[in-house]
Design brief:
The protein has one domain: Aminopeptidase (3-Layer(aba) Sandwich). By secondary structure, it is α+β, with helices and mostly antiparallel strands. Helix 1 crosses helix 2. The longest helix has 15 residues. It contains four helices and seven strands. Strands 1-2-3-4 form a four-stranded antiparallel β-sheet, sandwiched between helices.
């Protein structure tokens, strides 16, 4: 790995503020790929701090002090995978998926919104296959989604 490549490591409580800012910015900048946000930035900050970092297995990617992405695993689920806008298209998402596969070699699953075509292409390139489609009745955004699985 070259010196400029982001370091991926387990998240700590000290990462919570930067991770929450990146998470909120990433979701809000996704345009039509994601439905409109249903939580405030303050609610996102609580969620990142108290759920993703405190209660789940969350990894972050950082270059120096700059936080560039996060991956959260919850059992065999990729629960969250978000990158800073400046980090997209540079292989960081692929590094996170490779890490998830290493951590969960028996298989993974995840949900993505039906509107998120870039995510669908990304996960399919990494061997995930769609196994279920819903009308969104059970997600907070009430937006159609797709469950993917990798074995």
């Amino acid at each position: 790995m070259d010196a400029a490549a982001p370091l991926i490591r387990r998240a700590t409580p000290d990462d919570a503020e930067a991770a929450a800012l990146m998470y909120t910015a990433s979701r809000r900048s996704a345009g039509a790929a994601l439905p409109p946000a249903v939580h405030t930035p303050q609610e996102d900050a609580w969620f990142v701090r108290e759920v993703l970092i405190a209660a789940r297995e969350t990894w972050v990617a950082a270059r120096g002090e700059e936080l560039l992405g996060l991956l959260t695993l919850d059992g065999d689920w990729i629960d969250q995978l978000y990158l800073a806008g400046s980090a997209t298209g540079q292989g960081l998402g692929s590094r996170f998926v490779d890490l998830a596969k290493t951590q969960r070699p028996s298989g993974l699953q995840l949900w993505t919104f039906a509107s998120n075509l870039p995510a669908q292409r990304f996960y399919e390139r990494h061997g995930f296959i769609p196994v279920e489609r819903t009308d969104g009745e059970h997600n907070e955004e009430h937006a159609p989604d797709i469950r993917y699985r990798w074995n």
